[in-house]
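CORE FACILITY INTAKE
Project code: CF-77B
Contact: R.S. (postdoc)
Sample description: multi-component assembly, two entities in total
Requested service: structural model of the whole complex
Turnaround: standard
Below are the sequence entries exactly as provided by the requester. Do not edit them.
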Amino acid sequence: MKEISLNILDIAKNSTKAGASLTQIILEETDSALTLVIEDNGCGMSEETLKGVCDPFYTTRTTRKVGMGIPLLKLSAEQTQGSFCIESKSEEEFPDDHGTKVTAVFNKNHIDYTPLGDVVFSVTTLIQGDPQVDFLFIHRTPKGEVSLDTRDLKAQLGSEISLGEYEIIMWITEYLREQYEAIGY
Amino acid sequence: MKSLAELQAIKAKMQNKVALREGSGDMRVVVGMATCGIAAGARPVLSAFVEEVAKADLTSKVTVSQTGCIGICQFEPVVEVYEADKEKVTYVKMTAEKAKRVVEEHIKGGKVVTEYTFAAENA
């Protein structure tokens, strides 16, 4: 992946595939580090499945939700001397509190750091792909914070207008880009 | 600065348009957006289709959606076009530029851009 934002797009799609109604994408950035957390309330994974997800050769055709995505994100974090962690609670074992949380820490000053890239583009692509589910996006930077909660948008739009409509996607793009401009990111 | 309240105005403007769209969907454009597709550049391809279809005012007829791995990862970004009573067309190694041409010639004009298809690539 050429940009971390592409890893974000890829990994967050696993959350909607896992049936999550809410996927949170939180970026915490300092001058030297970038911490990415993707957390969902989807069906989660058993301990056995969880052990296998970091192994690219674990995938079989019957467990398609596990593939190259997680190993690629893990690699891009670890190649910067950062860290990677994935935790999950399966719906079977934890019927009231289930989901998956992926945390990747990147050392921004490392030579092998992949730039974050166009994260707005990834957020809008996620919304276009699954407009019925909700996304919370927060990017905290040393200069300020950028955020979007699709639940707030739906409160304004009601149920008859999908967030996937071109006009809405364009509005969200501008809404986020303006926030980045305002903090001088 | 944009405010969430602006969405109310957009909603009012769109309501008529969306009402017209009921019972539509003669044509479906499906973009492969699994790890393989994303790594190969599917994100701008998808967005080009969404944009061009909207600009051509075809949203009542054409839906653009995302799917997982189509199974020919080495040909990503892959785009499939489904149309009622017609054979599925598979476009391979797509770019945003190629997407524009597909909307213009195939989606609007009804003529498949043969040179971008899987069949042409594999010939």
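Facility notes:
- The longest helix of chain A spans residues 166-183.
- The mean pLDDT of chain A is 93.
Invoice: internal transfer
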